[in-house]
Amino acid sequence: MNASGTDLLLWVAFPYICLAVFAVGHVWRYRQDQFGWTSRTSQLLEHRWLRWGSPLFHLGAFMVIAGHVVGLAVPASWTEAAGISEHMYHTTAVWAGSVAGVAMVTGLGMLCARRLLSRRIRLGTDRSDKVLFPLLSATVLLGISATAAHNVFGGGYDYRETVSVWFRGVFTLQPQPEAISGAPLLFQLHALSACLLFAFWPFSRLVHVWSAPIGYLVRPYVVYRHRAAARATVVRGASAREARTRRAA
Amino acid sequence: MRVMAQIAMVMNLDKCIGCHTCSVTCKQTWTNRTGVEYAWFNNVETKPGVGYPRRYEDQEQWKGGWTLDRKGRLVLRSGGRLKRLLSLFSNPDLPSIEDYYEPVTYDYDNLVSAPAGPDMPVARPRSVLTGQPTSITWGANWEDGLGGASEHAGGDPNLTGEWARKVKFEFEQTFMFHLPRLCEHCLNPACVSACPSGAMYKREEDGIVLVDQDRCRGWRMCVTACPYKKVYVNHATGKAEKCTFCFPRIEAGQPTVCSETCVGRLRYLGLLLYDADKVGEAAATPNEQDLLDAQRGVFLDPFDPGVIAAARESGIPEDWLDAARRSPVYALVSKYKVALPLHPEYRTLPMVWYVPPLSPVLDAVTSAGGNQDDPDHVFAAVTRLRIPLEYLAELFTAGDTDVVGGVLMKLTALRSFMRERTLGEAGDESALKAVGLTAREAEDLHRLLAVAKYSDRYVVPAAHKEDAAALTAMENRCPVESSGEPAERKVMLGIPTLRRRDPEAPAGGHA
Q1: Which of A44, A52, A234 has its CB closest to that of B477?
Q2: Which tens digits make up the pLDDT trace of B414-444?
Q3: CATH for A5-213?
Q4: Assuming Cys at both sites, which of A40, B34, B269, B366 could form a disulfide with B238, CB separation 3.0 to 4.6 Å?
């Protein structure tokens, strides 16, 4: 290892601090602020922009996240072993990534626009939103411009040999700052803003991601609760799991 | 048989004068906060009229309540579970604030701070949402007392079919009545069933439907699923809020705020025992017009020894069983069968029922040159003057005019019999017999409907000492909160003192 002090700070210390804030922040928020743990819907006040912006953004985001998981977590040697050539992988990634990226950027653009243009929504925007929206937009724009500049219009840049190696190193507790320190500036900025986004995540409305109601698919329709249990959950959300659910219909 | 108890309400619509005291006191208690300025847990609307929110009864548009699929199974009209999750990002069937109304405040400050001038300063309306001057173009009861009805009332979703065209045509001889509405605390609540987070629940002890503010994640599916549109989004907190049936008062043996303050004394509160195992079956009754009987079939007779034994087994306390036997709601709903549910065809099995108003029919009798004191004239009117009757049937019996007509005849016979009694005559029992009442029952029903003492109207047994820990928990948190910093968030309500029955006094109500 012959990384400079700046590299150590940017690519080891900073990511770990952000991840620590991410983890501790979530525990703190979940324990302290069940009442504030919500998607904070504003559809009541404005629904025309939301009608298209929100599904575009969310579905695009799902694809983008899936793409990142494949691109960052799966080493190139694995896809190679599965018989997928670098060229094939690259072509698919650029095409699928472009579709997802454009959907997400368009959606986010519409969501930002309604927040700025609709006075009702603007007045209802709280402090955490004022940080979240610029931070999320910056991360998304940096990411898509890095891809556009280097992989769509540029000569091609194999981030799987550099950025991905650094990313996996962070999680395997064998940080390799030198892997990313030579990457193009746009990729570096994207990685840094993403770290910031993760640090801010628990303090923003993004926590609603963890409440995706998948359990609803298998739950009985009508929920019954005892008064005592109900009160107990109102006192402190922790005992919510004790609440009994039973089938009525 | 799984016996459960529910606090239910009946409203006697003939007595409603549309004063909105219930709405205002409810609002002062529960929704005078940022984010729910537009929400009325209790509202009073003029019928015929489009209602609040606009045309909420049009389920083709709003997709509220339940329906039967091709195989006859009960499904939410807004779609299945997967479809609901897929519309989390944008709910296509959510009313917008314009469908309710834009809440306003006034420039009161201008009244005292305006510089001296030749004109009287005025307080102009300002939108609460944008803070900018606005003009008021809609409200929660815009057509109050049929104001502007010629323009709007035709939009009432209950006015469909041939007879409805006549209503619109003959607006000079129109009829109207007031319809106070609150959450129905249904036996088969669509809002609870649609909540992806499982934050909404029905309490086993008293059937009150509540939103757990700590578990609500703001997916807003409940608003769509409720066919009565009685769940609201708090746009400041992003969470759902609804009528709580004033459960802190109910637990203390006191009537809800809307009932307590009702000027016309038209509300009744009492227990109904029901068989929870039969709810699903009743809600899936194939023919909509059979839903009323199906729901009555779910209710249990609190005098039946078998029911009493099963209720004890389910852990329902003795004083609650006693209260169930003295329940005015049981008397009006199941014994005398004069109360009807609002829109049974939504299949939610609502638990706020209504005694349909005679006044539209009586007005029609008078305008047709008849004598509204003569039961024969009224009987004839009930069967011949189709317009009001068909309208009432659309509201209360899924269009079955025979049932509404039968209730109105019962009320007419009761009036005529009791008038004669009051005037010192023996009273003609033939009209009574025709509607299936004995003289003794008529006096009983008269006491309940006309005399309507406080202790007869409200039979609310207090929650039990065993649950005292639960009640004290109330002091820590309140089910509704305002947005803002955690420290400022606590909104303390006046917690009513527990009205414990002393051994002599009967449970619930004033002695």
Answers
A1: A234
A2: 988 998 899 988 878 888 998 999 999 999 9
A3: 1.20.950.20
A4: A40
